[in-house]
Design a protein that fits this description.
The protein is an all-alpha fold and about 325 residues long. Helix 3 packs antiparallel against helix 6. The longest helix is centred in the first third of the chain and has 26 residues. The protein is globular.
């Protein structure tokens, strides 16, 4: 899409500091701030992670064109700026990519996405949410639900010890309340009481053996305890239920690379995670990208650069 520049458009967006990197960062911060507010308004109740990722993607998408235009305005040459200021608008055009599959569009989208992953607390909270309903997910007992809600409120404030008491009360009232067991496990994990976290997750799995949250989090806790084989076993159990869950392959890739010193298995899993994150438009793609760079650095230092590139090619990933 070609956009003719008008004098008023130029005035609306600051370009007098075109070569100032701080102005570009300021623009990125402003666009990301709008996207973060949009993300904060997303409801996660009874939505899968894929559905939440799609909603987040739409929030970021809405800012990409404006961000792309702003950056390109800042990159105008002095002659082009002088042309616009003198209202010779026919002589200056800017090409804006609106094709979401193009490298040009993705470049600006990923810049905003990476920035949001580092700065937007709402994004991390929303994408980590798991409120997809199944049998026994929530309780029919109003009193148990009240204690559960209180636990959520305290957990969001970071008051984990208070949250713990409320979740315990919820499961005492309704022992089949899986969301309460799951959040009890998450809270124990945050308090670094790992054995109790595992016990809570196992209680949830007794009620729903296919529960995504306990299976995924029990793997994380085993990794914290340095029981890596048990962590891999838990990830494999989750893979049997959700073969397209990128968290499985990211978690396994991290364990193989960081703790088992198996660069190739680590890379194979991270490649699979990266592809799935990208296909599902999940912002966790940025985390997989970072880990991929760490693996590249390690394999290059070990003289395995060719093998690294070969594995990427096998997985259909271009490394730039």
């Amino acid at each position: 899409m070609k956009i003719p520049l008008t004098f008023f458009l130029l005035i609306a967006i600051t370009i007098t500091t075109a070569q100032n990197p701080n102005e570009k960062e300021k623009l990125k911060k402003e666009m990301a701030g709008v996207a973060c507010s949009c993300i904060d308004s997303i409801s996660t109740f009874n939505k899968s992670n894929k559905e939440i990722a799609k909603d987040i993607n739409q929030c970021i998408d809405k800012q990409v064109t404006a961000y792309q235009l702003g950056i390109k305005l800042m990159n105008l040459s002095e002659a082009e700026k002088d042309t616009v200021k003198s209202k010779k608008t026919a002589d200056v055009t800017i090409n804006i990519s609106t094709n979401k599959d193009s490298d040009e569009y993705k470049k600006y989208y990923y810049q905003l996405e990476r920035y949001l992953m580092d700065t937007c607390a709402s994004l991390k909270r929303k994408i980590a949410a798991n409120e997809k309903l199944s049998e026994n997910s929530i309780s029919d007992n109003a009193n148990a639900m009240e204690w559960y809600s209180k636990g959520n409120q305290e957990g969001e404030k970071g008051n984990y010890k208070k949250a713990l008491k409320h979740y315990k009360k919820a499961v005492e009232i309704d022992p089949n309340f899986t969301f309460a067991w799951d959040n009890l496990g998450v809270t124990y994990r945050k308090l670094e009481e790992y054995d109790k976290a595992i016990e809570a997750y196992q209680n949830s799995l007794k009620i729903n053996p296919k529960g995504k949250t306990p299976l995924q989090n029990i793997a994380i806790v085993y990794a914290y305890k340095k029981e890596f084989d048990k962590a891999l076993e838990a990830y494999n159990r989750l893979a049997e239920i959700e073969k397209d869950n990128p968290e499985v392959y990211y978690g396994m890739g991290l364990i193989y690379f960081q703790y088992k010193n198996d660069n190739e298995k680590g890379l194979q899993n991270i490649c699979r995670a990266l592809r799935l994150y990208t296909e599902q438009k999940s912002p966790y793609r940025a985390d997989a990208e970072k880990l991929l760079a760490y693996i590249y650095k390690e394999m290059k230092s070990n003289g395995q650069e060719d093998r690294f590139l070969e594995i990427l090619q096998e997985n259909g990933i271009n490394f730039k």
